[in-house]
Queue: 4 jobs
Job 1
Amino acid sequence: MTEANTKIYHPEIICPQRTIGSRTFDFSRQVAVMAIINRTPDSFHDRGRTFALDAAVTAVENAIIHGADWLDIGGVPFAPGPPVSEAEEIDRVVPVIEAARARTDAVISVETYRPEVARAAFAAGANVLNNTSGLHDPALADVVAEAGAGLIITHSLAEPRTPYPRPTYNDVVTEVAEFLRARVALAESRGVPADRIIIDPGHDLNKNTYHSLELTRRLPEIAEIGYPLLVAVSNKDFIGETVNREQLDRIEATIATVSVCIMQGARIVRVHDIAELVSAVRMVESILGWRPPELARHNLV
């Protein structure tokens, strides 16, 4: 296929060809679709639909069937809520990770802010730590380094599960970029190599709708940091507030937002609606000349 002339931001990525677990990605011309599997009773979108173990495993199986490259498994939401002990969090995520690993060679990440939960998840078969607290606890980097795992560093301001009302920034994009650069440097100083680090600007995490729209608009300034860029925008409140749609009626706007983010440098997208978003992402890849059509018969036969 010829490369498209479509205007798109092509960031210079540190080690764009990466093997994560058993999967290899070329992030210079490929987008990984990450499926969200929440084993929580109070996640902002699922509202407990996959809290039961059998429901979580079914969600894993559906994600695999619909072509997810990556499974992100979490047992505690980012938002404030009832306390969850470390032991309970491990009991929530480890059985799902074990079940997922028995079914697929897709990448598995665990979303947690606790080092011991990360350690248990790696022992169960996870490949990556997805840390939405921005390495609030530097010991997380130590666990990742010891396991030889990958690390997603996300921008957020509050301590885990702590309210942060009315966040303010002088320039949200500049400040998010500075934060991510500093936390990447911290991770590398603790032994996590550059080729195992991914960054996420943290849409809606301690940010209002205007902040998240600005981050999306200026996403190349985050991508130019140089590490593969993950965006977690699926069905988030900034989308709902922008188009005035309730939580379960945001898929079209999510698809539009994800597509724009890919054009702006995102290479991993974290999503709820796997079948629809896999199709949308693969279409964007093909328009950009990165992926051949699955079929090519129209006016050719």
Job 2
Amino acid sequence: MTSMGKTRRMMSVGMIGAALTLTLAAPARAGETPAAATDRNAAGWELTPTGTDARFRGLAPVDRRTAWAAGSKGTVLRTTDGGRSWRDVSPPGAGELEFRDVEAFDARRAVVLAIGEGEASRVLRTEDGGATWTESFRNTDPRAFYDCMTFFDRRHGLAMSDPVDGKYRILSTRDGGRSWEVLPSAGMPDALPGEAGFAASGQCLVSAGSRDVWLATGGGATARVLHSADRGLTWTATVSPIPAGDPARGVFGLAFRDRTHGIAVGGDYRKDQPSPRAGAVTGDGGRTWRASATPPPAYRSGVAWLPHSRNAALAVGPTGTDLTTDGGRTWRTVDTGSYDTVDCTADGSCWAAGEKGRIARLSVRKGGPGTA
């Protein structure tokens, strides 16, 4: 592609991100629900037909046409036509596994993480679009419970387990998930009593750039975010303002648009419990965190920056989707549908997934609701 072609493409993608931000941010009229305002502004989540009732907490969109989703009952789906159809590419014999994270490199190569105690925690990889799968890691330590996974590039990636012997366990790959090794724990700070990660959205371990990675925690006396600048060898821990102090409370999802600017969301996942201060932001790579002035109104498990935006992001949870246009300082609800995780791609598409087979694309529709 010529330099002029690249410039035009980036301008087009930037305009898509700007359009999503502007349409979602438009205020509701008097008496109008957030979802109605979204429809009136011709932008919102558009559900896609998945043909399953699995719950998808793992989501890996590659671009506006290609995306992968991983969920309960060992289910893995893939689309290559923008969600108009999904193909079941689940690994054979995986019906008892709980897939909670998926990382995809393109339409053919993807890595999925199954969670659980002992051997229930596994990593599988495909190089042919899900036609065949290879198990590349099976946890044999009954004390370990893997929660999330992230990749820095097509070769280097990490997975994290709840604390073993008082420290989070980090698994590393240098060959795109074909093989894994447990990293030394000497550079990992001690976990707090009762502290763990949440396998709720595939976003309790996230990366930005070639070496920086962040780990979200809860359950302990405080909800913390751990940061490593050397691909998981050494870590520092910082307290976040999101409440913890209970096994159901803490930081559930992280998103970084670069090495310094990040957003944390969480709360209490129990339906009958409030989630005050469910959002926080950092501008220094996670060394310090500030509570959102107007946080999401309820528990949120997933968060993603809108494409090529410095200030706009989406947060999702079982009771709705919230939008920020000021980098996470203030949020407002723009949809009331249930989703567990959300992610956006470099070419201007955003996707969300959740319970009862729900997978949706964020679309800007021409001519109002009901048109593509």
Job 3
Amino acid sequence: MSAARRLRAGLKGWGGVGAMGAACALTAVFTLLPLRDAPLVEGGAASGGQGPTRVTYAKADDCEDADAWKQSLEPSSDESGTTIADIKKKGYLTVGVDQNSYRWGYRDPNSESDKAELEGFDIDLAHRIADEIVGGDSTHNIRFKAVPTNQRIPAIQSGQVDMVVRTMTISCKRLEEVAFSAPYFTTGQQVLAPRSSTIDGYDSLAKTKICTASGSTALETLRDDQKKGDLPSSADISTTVPNQLDCLVRLQLGEVDAVVTDGALAASQAAQDPTVDLKGDPFTTEYYGVAMKKDAEDLVRRVNQVLEDYRDSGWQQSYDKWLAPTLGEDAAKSRPPTPDYR
């Protein structure tokens, strides 16, 4: 029996500090090196509440906050551009993903496969893009690279990945550094805290210690809200981590009182650990997009064409398989808006 399988055999579930530690150990089996040298892995196979109450995006001179998701290019099936030509020449798409986000991009510790292949909602979309652009065998037309939350943009800019499909919110600030596809998912920031906590939502975070991922829109929102006075100055937002899942571990260890992250991710983390729960309604509206280099216009347009087809055939099936157990059977609130290209 391989070391990976022995480790998986000892995992009976995802809840609790012990299980999370084992899950982190499983991750270490596959990725011990920095992003630049991380091994490439061949591709294989409910929040509750009444909905968001406001839309928040980072500022940029050429971008209206509420319209950041409308900044993508018109879709096209044309594959004559240099970016796509380079991808086809090498024979595979390199995609930055998460391998620690339950039901989004993760390695199932209870998998019967020795490879413990990546799976989840984002992984399904990445495979669909590779199948449409590269074609051929789906086990060879894609390479996944695990990218920490705070390294998503550097990985794109340095050319280590062709794109990032990793629960990445489209924001004005990020649009200054990378290009985005049209949205493929709708979510909003939400609070995650122990079930026993007196915290009951975003408005009750005074005198608490909060964890966020560095480079996340959650951290940007907290900082902006403290400057505006919408979040009490007594809320300690100094705890940041490279990967969002690390916040859950901090919460389990009692090192922080709450986690602020996308509600879609928070719901999956609550499913991993029944001792924590979502508190209150989402307090922003955000949209996930596929991130690419700013000058890769041909790739952006082609991905948008893939998304046009995926919304009609593929998106709902992937939602039902991966996210319905945590976000609920009704996918309407998670569906992306009708594209409005610039």
Job 4
Amino acid sequence: MTRTNMTRTKDFLAPARLGRLGLPHHLVMAPLTRNRAEADGTPGPLMVTHYAQRATAGLLIGEASTPNAVGQTYPNITAIHTDRHEAGWRRVTEAVRAAGGHMFLQLQHGGRVSHPATTGLTPVAPSPVPLPETIFTPRGHRPAVVPREMTRDDIRATAADFAAAARRAVAAGFEGVEVHSANGHLLHQFLAGNTNRRTDGYGGPAGRRVRFTAEVTEAVADAIGADRVGVRISPGSTVNGVREDDTEALYPALLARLKDLDLAYLHLVHADPDTPVYRRIRADWPGVLIGNPVLTDLTTEAVTRAARDMLAAGADLVALGRPFLANPDLVRRLRLGAPLNPVRDRYLMYVGGADGYTDYPALDAQAPLPSRDSIVATDGPRVA
């Protein structure tokens, strides 16, 4: 998707476009996995409420959903590979659409970030290199296991699973999907040299390590149309134990494979406009760039400043995670200059229930605006 549809502005509350979608403003709700699905990965009524509450985001990107059983990371995360999953997500998209919102779904395979205690299956990965930390399972935190190295057949089958999941997502009412190639999950494991020790066509130099992400993206684009497909990347991230020794070469090689597909967007996690990596990606990417800024303070002033700076640095849309999590009416608060709710970290993940999920209060339109004193919260490394 070329940038010709985007109008350069620092006003993040001005209307925007994403291809065929007219958006009310430039703010995107980033994908936020919160372990509130049913045990089999089906979204339930609580998730319907959660997303409908936040439908005033210009675009909502639904949380990471696994395209197959072995790709599941933690208990109670969502999936999109059965009829039941599809029906559960359809209830979410119908509620969001009824509230005037637009929604994509993130597709994520955990790779080595998984455990047999959760899936009943041995994790798969580019190489048999285990996660260097414990992982949360239904039995609590357990030591990670050595993953099975993926064969060529596994690689082809996984790309096909992503494509099938994308078709299900569109059937469930999503406008499109985001391919997750970030944060130390399977596709990022192929990109990073410490987790990809292969010597075949999927390992070695950067140009070969980007191949799997490119092939998955191509398969998804072929399945539902490139204008319905975004890709998420996190250059230099060390989340989940990945390490990139050649970030400066890796992402230009990846973008060279992706840029001619005419995708809906590229989503850059923890984008820092002051870094050479950001500037190179913005220069190399001909399409829509969604920037997810680094936030240390979660205040009206800090979020406003970060959104403006992101647009000024060439991003076309701005993705926010925790601000939308704690403020279902975030857009209204920013318009009015009202203070933001603090994030309740205790309820972020692994806990379930409405606490810290659907019970964040919205502003009372009939009451005076609260004081503009700042409330500070810190973004953790696993949260957008």
